[in-house]
Amino acid sequence: MPAKSSAPRQKRSGRFPAARPGSLQPALRDAERTRRSILKAATAEFAESGLAGARVDKIAEVSGVNKRMLYYYFSNKDDLYLAVLEEAYIAMRTSERSLKLDNLEPLAAIRKLVEFKFDYFAENPAMIWLLNGENMLGAQHLKRSTRLKDMHISLVRTISTILDAGVAGGTIRPNVDPLQLYISISALSYFFFSNGPTLSTAFGKDVRSAAARAARRAHAADVILGYLRPPPEALLTSPKRRRN
Amino acid sequence: MPAKSSAPRQKRSGRFPAARPGSLQPALRDAERTRRSILKAATAEFAESGLAGARVDKIAEVSGVNKRMLYYYFSNKDDLYLAVLEEAYIAMRTSERSLKLDNLEPLAAIRKLVEFKFDYFAENPAMIWLLNGENMLGAQHLKRSTRLKDMHISLVRTISTILDAGVAGGTIRPNVDPLQLYISISALSYFFFSNGPTLSTAFGKDVRSAAARAARRAHAADVILGYLRPPPEALLTSPKRRRN
Amino acid sequence: MPAKSSAPRQKRSGRFPAARPGSLQPALRDAERTRRSILKAATAEFAESGLAGARVDKIAEVSGVNKRMLYYYFSNKDDLYLAVLEEAYIAMRTSERSLKLDNLEPLAAIRKLVEFKFDYFAENPAMIWLLNGENMLGAQHLKRSTRLKDMHISLVRTISTILDAGVAGGTIRPNVDPLQLYISISALSYFFFSNGPTLSTAFGKDVRSAAARAARRAHAADVILGYLRPPPEALLTSPKRRRN
Amino acid sequence: MPAKSSAPRQKRSGRFPAARPGSLQPALRDAERTRRSILKAATAEFAESGLAGARVDKIAEVSGVNKRMLYYYFSNKDDLYLAVLEEAYIAMRTSERSLKLDNLEPLAAIRKLVEFKFDYFAENPAMIWLLNGENMLGAQHLKRSTRLKDMHISLVRTISTILDAGVAGGTIRPNVDPLQLYISISALSYFFFSNGPTLSTAFGKDVRSAAARAARRAHAADVILGYLRPPPEALLTSPKRRRN
DNA sequence: TATGAATGAGAATTCATTCAT
DNA sequence: GATGAATGAATTCTCATTCAT
What we know:
Chain A is mostly helical and about 240 residues long. Chain A has helices at about 25-55, 55-65, 65-75, 75-100, 105-125, 125-135, 140-145, 155-170, 180-195, 195-205, 210-230. Chain A is built from 11 helices and no strands. In chain A, α1 (about 25-55) packs antiparallel against α2, α5 (about 105-125) runs parallel beside α9 (about 180-195) and α5 (about 105-125) runs antiparallel to α11. At the A-B interface, α1, α6, α9, α10 and α11 of A face α1, α6, α9, α10 and α11 of B.
């Protein structure tokens, strides 16, 4: 293996090359482009087939890059897989961060979050399959990722703030654990997509048609918002719980 | 993941079955035992590693059965995988059917169903991983299964009945789609287990500790029952629905 | 890798199959024969090319065995190399043990030992090259060999006894370290063979012709026996030793 | 094994050579420095891993020189290997030539030679491993070296002269073949170092500790000088031999 | 039924070497 | 002279599957 040290290090900051007429370090640009091609093809392949099922040859072929280059840039299949995973996580977290929930009413904010989650998974099915695969492997790659160390979910804090505001305003029931809520919001959308194939088979109809999607999107919001409604007078079903 | 559900462990002590009248000949019983050993080991292996990652050698070794026998009984890896899948599905459906929800109050019935789902996934993690794997393969095996043709979910009908009773009794909101509800109930538990590894990593704490499990179980019921509460007077989120 | 556990375990004791007319477990016999073929070809290849230079394909081809079988029997190239090394060592140690030096006069015994060493290397050049290669690798395989744990040199004790007898009888100088002597005896023959190619080149004549070999054999004995002669009266090179 | 002998480390501090009158142009001096860096790194790598095991990438990395440059200066791996070999040989021969044995007493001269050989190998382990590797390859590179054509051993002539003087003076036995003696002197030291790893393993103790080295050095001299002692009256063990 | 041995088609990975700038 | 990117031909190793008994 050409040793990590020899791997390309220069990461120019801007997304586009400085508009210098003429050459503008083409080798460098090619390197970054090659890296991108590989990552893109690898994402598709790993999402489709998982780590074990993915074929390095296929990735090379699809990306139009010499197979040897995969090793030049990513050392081995496992590291490439990790890079794909990191990339996908970073994209998702970045998306989450760009959500502006602060200046919305609490319930509107929650609804927006539910719908965002749904839409994100709808538009990025690769994320579903990558997560599925990584979970089957016990998240072993994710654990050893250094790039993701501080990438981890800040959304829970945001949810906590929203809940507090809603409780104060009387529009949201008290004692809702924001982490559990986050998991539930994710679950209602994620499961629909991740288990779409078996659900479709089991119910004998395509759960992923446009109509079915729309229905599911609305339902997910209904469930979460329905749950969050404050009780009329009485107590909740389970007496009292604290957030853990 | 020794798949408790799909391989009800029949390790009888003696080499021959107790001479129960009408039982099969010893040889055949041994054959059945061999089949069971293989299925059990295969369930664990496929659950742990998926179809592509699973190793026929490992299955043979773990089951203590000669590799040639796998082929004798199951033709090839793919068919063995399908057999494992069918076994697991049948076990789950059987379990579901044994639930006696009829003579419970509607809300109690729903709560029981939610908790049953949670407990089933908690006790049968193999089911989670098998489903994950099969979904990544587009449910292609499930689709061609003949044994599962009529195994498909009757629970939705039951749920429908319960909902109707609850609506009539004023304890459940109207216009709840039973299929969506079934999916949501599954989702709230399934996702928690299937994505446990990455969630634990992302949140930096073990989401699957006993305490965390208990909290999750209660939360899932809260969400579903909270959602199902009928609205006080006002309208629900989706416009056209009314109450009186 | 088909797992060590599945590797053939049955090692029948006798060298020849029990003369049972007819079948006599041919599968078993084939296994042992196959193992032998592989080891033989591997010994030649590793001796000729070293660990890094050896080609698994070549070994398979020369041994007439399917390449896959190398892995079936020996797991990987490294383990095969170790097996070859162990085999060679065991053969050498066994040879050494069959030397009957006890009932010879001390000087005759030493001479016999010197000549034995010379002849062994002459007849088993593979041993030379295997040792060369293994030493270049820092003896890393040898160190982790369990089979050789107790195979290690007993010859030094024998030499010690011989030296003592010679000193007592006045035919051998006192204070000779038996380990150093063993190393020197080995060195005088080993180096001649191991460095034959460069010596031949440097001196512009084939050091390994029959005549040159005979001369070297005699010279080695001369050096060792000449060295072992007791001093006439005078003191030896190292001061403190005395005689009377 | 940074091969002290073959690569007299010229790491001058400044980027350009001190403007010594008559020196080459900076560019050229840099070229020479690059060459040296490569040779030094290559010596270490080939010594450590042999020709087949050595990695061109590693050499480039260690020498801090772009891989392309290796090819610019040395055409290919094989030629680089040969260059390393020649360098090492030349260094050794040069060292040997600088030995002033002429004005010493015969026995003192021989002792000095023995100790020189020992020390040289002790201080230049790379020489050991390069020779080992080249011998395993049948000295094929050495044979085709033109630079070494006339580099070959003049030491034997010197030894011959010393022996003659010793015989004449009665301090050395007659009929000693100088070539055999040279080989034996080399052998006693070389083998100790070249086979150190396996010897240490076989004897279960580190043969290369400082104490063990000192003992070996003394022993080597003892053996050679003990052997060279003239016989009291009687004949030698093997009747009479001529130098060949 | 049962078993150890065998196989061929890949799969990942490595490596010396060359290209383009 | 110097450099990073690229390449194709091996090379080791894996795996599901079948053979012979």
